[in-house]
Amino acid sequence: MNYFIKNATVVNEGETFSAHLYIKDGIIAKIVRNGETFEPENAQVVDARGKYLIPGVIDEHVHFREPGMTAKADIYSESRSAVAGGVTSYMEMPNTIPQTTTQALLQEKFNLAAEKSLANYSFYIGATNDNLDEIVKTDPAKVCGVKLFMGSSTGNMLVDKDSVLETLFKESPCLIAAHCEDEDIIKRNTLHYKELAEHHEVVPDASIHPLVRTEEACYRSTEKAVNLAKKTGARLHVMHISTRAELLLFDPSIPLLSKRITAETCPHYLLFDDRDYSQYGFAIKCNPAIKSANDKRALWRGVQDGYIDTIGSDHAPHLREEKFTDSYFTAKSGFPSIQHNFAFMLDNFKRNKLKIADLVRLMCHNPATIYRIERRGFIREGYFADLAIVDDNANALITNEDVLYKCGWTPYDGNTVRSQVTHTFVNGNLVYENGIFHEENRGERLTFTRK
Question: What is the pLDDT of residue 153?
């Protein structure tokens, strides 16, 4: 079906302007600015008066848990949550069961997504200490990147041999997306706090998380990754930056098209700080840890000043019984968020006097540019019609009963957002409309240029 989106406030490439948009055969066929006349052919009309029309969000950092952990989440359930939040494309992590560390296992994931995903998709191949032969087979036109864990997290895919790391940076055919935390520091701190807890000198609650996974652990590992990328010329995207210190490792003066070393942060590092552990507890335990108010303020400045290039969700569902345990040492790290991230970020960008165009740049344009995604991430004629319509005057109370995540809970339970996604188009198909899903079509595999 073709669509004609009328009376929209389009946010795209630094501009905000009134326009109509004609979608034909899944493609943006015509952007009709005020003063132009245009008659669409056989199109269903969608009136977006008073609402923003943005490129669909591209989330380069999700954990959908399939295969192997589908009690928590699966590709269908979480892609459904994604499109309800305006996310039209995602890139999913390899720490599943089995871990996605071979070309055969990677292809199995693509096959699953072709059957189940409502959004467009790609999957990372995971690096280990001994799978370089599989890494070098990766086709950069068909796979988003290589995921490198330089600190252990869910799934424990740690790569900790210096010789392996340097060879990986030299020979990876794709962008390297890195989780950077120093494992030795984390192990030492974990043992220290376990001893204190055993002697009842500290309560093993969520507040000790940033004392275990410290600023030093993040900085030392990120510095190492950045130095390796500079030495080898590798493309490096450091994920979930959580500290003020790390920001200085990145150069905001380089135009994005020329950058080979880029940085991501996540909504939770911009929304929370260590004072919030007393209210939210293990619900906001994640790796790297949410840190101080000073770090949060610095990350907002980093977003504004170009040190941070993207905002990805790190959507990471766990079951309630895995999260809400009686001890820091058993509570899982990570939480679901993809359904609500854009709305929360829009609210907070307005609160921090930043423009929606800046948010669109960070969550839509820049992931497409950094990953070299073909014909997505922008509202341009000839591009795929991956789009979201957003009402920024629609208050909504978030509750666990209303979330779409398979795990059935959110740390945002009880919070109100002042913005909502009302419509989401994927490849020109209207898949989400005011709480109703249209599931006749599936998303498509992302493709990438080699430039």
Answer: 54
CA distance 369 to 309: 10
- Number of helices (H), then strands (E), belonging to the chain: the values are 15, 20
Going by their DSSP bridges, the two strands 125-126 and 120-123 should be labelled as: unpaired
**Could you tell me where the beta strands, DSSP code E, fall in 34-158?**
43-47, 52-55, 57-62, 87-92, 120-123, 125-126, 146-149
Question: Alpha-carbon distance 9 to 203, whole Å?
Answer: 51
Q: How many residues in total does the chain contain?
A: 451
Question: Which CATH number is associated with domain 56-371?
Answer: 3.20.20.140
Domain boundaries, the chain: 2-53+385-396+417-437, 56-371
The model's pLDDT over 44-80, given as tens digits with 9 standing for 90+, comes to: 999 999 999 999 999 999 999 999 999 999 999 999 9
Integer Cα distance of 181 and 100 in angstroms: 21
Determine the CATH number of domain 2-53+385-396+417-437: 2.30.40.10
Q: How would you label 109-124 residue by residue, b for 16+ Cβ within 10 Å and e otherwise?
A: beebbeebbbbbbbbb
Q: How many CB atoms lie within 10 A of CB 418?
A: 16
Tokens of 258: 């020329």
pLDDT of 402-445, one tens digit each?
999 999 999 999 999 999 999 999 999 999 999 999 999 999 99
Assign 152 a pLDDT band (cuts: 50, 70, 90). low
Contacts of 118 (CB under 8 A, 6+ apart): 76, 79, 80, 82, 83, 426, 431, 437, 439, 442, 443
Give the span between the Cα atoms of 62 and 159, in whole angstroms.
20
> Are 226 and 238 contacting, i.e. CB atoms less than 8 angstroms apart?
yes
